[in-house]
Amino acid sequence: MTVLHYAEIAKDVSAMTVKPNLLDIERERQGWSWDRAKAGLDLPNGLVNQAYECIDRHAAGQRAQKHGMIWEGADGKVERYTFAELKRHTNRFANALRTLGIKKGDRVFFFADRIPELYFGVFGALKLGAIAAPLFSAFGPEPVRERVQRAEGVVIVTTPNLVAKVNAIRGQLPSLKHVIVIAHRQGKPVASGDLDYQRLVDAASDQFEIERTGQEDWSVMHFTSGTTGMPKGAAHVHGAVLGHLATGKYVLDLHDDDIYWCTADPGWVTGTSYGMFAPWSNGVTNLIYEGGFGAAKWYQVIQRHRVTVWYTAPTAIRLLMRAGAKVAKQHDLSTLRYVMSVGEPLNPEGVVWGKEAFGLPIHDNWWQTETGAIMIANYLSMPIRPGSMGRPFPGITAAILDDEQNEITAPMVEGQLALKPPWPSMFRVYWNDQERYNSRFKRGWYLTGDKAKRDADGYFWFVGRDDDVINTAGHLVSPFEVESVLIEHEAVAEAGVIGKPDAVAMEIVKAFVTLHDGYEPTNELRRQIMGHARERLGPGVAPREIDFIKILPKTRSGKIMRRLLKARELGLPEGDTSTLEED
Ligand code: ATP
Ligand code: MG
Q1: Mean of pLDDT values over 190-214
Q2: Nearest to 63 by CA among 55, 71, 75
Q3: CA separation for the pair 113, 136 (Å, rounded)
Q4: For residue 583, what pLDDT is reported?
Q5: Is 398 helix (H, G, I), strand (E, B) or coil?
Q6: Which atom in ligand 1 lies closest to the alpha carbon of residue 230?
């Protein structure tokens, strides 16, 4: 089944004030060479270090006095750092780590809010050749222990408001040698036994010779979102920066004078690949906002800093929709020229709503922690088919495979979404889990664990996670398509759809929905929503049951956790909930 009822959104490139970097996806694909893309990097002596390519080379050139980072604190305080300053701050931290005996390959964890020192720290660690591993600051002690233990972390960099969580598990972390506390922003003392970030960097030189790292040397480790189960620690290499540079240029369409804002936290991969590496490898001003979500608050951030390119997530877009386009229109968002989304499928309704609220459709793109960079995208110059994740990046080969890993070439047949390895930003291992890593590669393909289909023009359509696709009376049903139809109903804010075991149909489609403010969860409303779904999807696919709930369980990166809806529905154990967002 396909829900293809939204008209294609055509693009008029000649009307765009900034000419897109990618004008013709087909031509770009045919002539693509990753080697040629390397011309956009410095690669001194054939070496590659992400921190060098993102910071030092700009500090040494014409961008030295350009603001690489604009930071706005949760309290509204604004700080600006030039590339030259970023170089000095990161050098100092790299020296501090070296003084502590931290070496190439050591795992350095970051457990802090989005403050400038988090960014100095990650790049300082990269300069030293250490593996930087950022964690969500909202994690409790247990998820921190789990991850640091699995990766045998040597250092945790944190802040006074979080250090108690580290203390709670410290005794269980034999690999941990140092806890560095960034205390000066909170004006709190550092406990004896811990190291004071400020003291360390004050005592360190701002000159640093970057460790000799090559393309295959480790750079960052990221744990997956835990949407489908226990998070996996995907390790990446310095050579990945080529993928960040290229997708930053051709998907994010970054230009030198852009003010770019990625709302993702570095606790998940979008917050590093696109909250750090893509903008900085392109030498672009990167806005970092420490505060959390709020519709008016976010629009003020865009207005105040004159954001031009904005990368966010479907969950945020659905919340903005919930607040209403009116709130957007009360702000001056005229600097915005391009809005993108990642992390979950973006409902067609959301794509189109962007036009209403910002005069700009929202561009969905697809990738994973494992892929390290965007793999499939809607480009600024390419017509959008709302509900589709777009077309593969020029240097990437994507395919739909059947269960025996044969390529399915017929259009709109669903199968496993697979990618042809290698590509520069690809993960190189699941840390301490080689077997699981190996299981993701079959017959020359990397299997993504997602189901999708491809239309006759090469656009890819997300169907669902392998585990989420529903089999009802012989039909395969995409939870995403059902959810997208449900949120078209004026009362429905968000929806999560699962397959509920059934003796006759194998599974029946069951939906959980949250309502917009002002709507009451009545039986009459349930009947209306069901009626709408039946009309749009047909009775075989429409949900048989709809429950109203107050909030949908989501990961901290904002993804609907269908496995939890299912476990709760069936009274089964919830499994790993370390990434569950708790309000
Ligand atoms: P885990 O692997 O631990 O279950 P996760 O897969 O959610 O968690 P991430 O690597 O953060 O961890 O997310 C990647 C996944 O998110 C993709 O495999 C896909 O299922 C989903 N996703 C990301 N972007 C999109 C998109 N634009 N459309 C549809 N799905 C998307
Ligand atoms: Mg995954």
Answers
A1: 97
A2: 55
A3: 8
A4: 62
A5: strand
A6: 3
State the pLDDT confidence band at 139, using cuts at 50, 70 and 90. Answer: very high
Q: How far apart are the C-alpha atoms of 200 and 203, rounded to whole Å? A: 5
pLDDT in tens, 518-539: 999 999 999 999 999 999 998 8
**In the chain, which segments carry CATH 3.40.50.12780?**
6-24+34-448
Tokens matching residue 371: 């892929």
* ∠ CA 35-36-41, rounded to 5°: 85
Q: Comparing C-alpha atoms, which of 301, 283, 289, 304 is closest to residue 66?
A: 283
Burial class (CB in 10 A: 0-12, 13-18, 19+), 10: exposed
Cβ atoms within 10 Å of 20's Cβ, excluding its own: 18
Please provide the CATH number assigned to the domain covering 6-24+34-448. 3.40.50.12780
Q: Where in the chain is the domain with CATH 3.30.300.30?
A: 470-570
What average pLDDT score do residues 332-341 get? 98
What stretches of 100-167 show up as alpha helix (H) in DSSP? Answer: 116-128, 141-151, 163-167
User: Ligand 1 center to residue 464 CA distance, Å?
Assistant: 10
Q: How far is the CA of 452 from the centre of ligand 2 (A)?
A: 14
| Strands annotated E in 6-119 | 67-72, 78-82, 107-111
**Protein residues whose CB sits closer than 6 Å to any atom of ligand 1:** 224-229, 231, 268-269, 342-345, 364-366, 368-369, 389, 448, 450, 462, 465, 557, 559
State both tokens at 515. Answer: 């309502």
Q: Which residues contact 61 (CB under 8 A, 6 or more apart)?
A: none
- Strand 545-548 and strand 506-515: the pairing is parallel
Residue 4, pLDDT > 60, answer no
Q: CA dist 413 to 366, 407, 453, 460, Å?
A: 19, 11, 5, 11
Q: Which residues pair with 183 in a beta bridge?
A: none
pLDDT tens readout for residues 472-487: 988 889 999 999 999 9
Q: Which atom of ligand 1 is nearest to the CA of 449?
A: 18
Q: What is the CA radius of gyration of the chain?
A: 23
Q: Does domain 470-570 have CATH number 3.30.300.30?
A: yes
pTM above 0.90, yes or no: yes
Q: Is residue 64 pLDDT above 80, yes or no?
A: yes
- Bridge-based pairing of strands 155-158 and 475-477 is unpaired
Distance CA 302, CA 298 (A): 6
Nearest Cα residue to 270 out of 344, 333, 204: 344
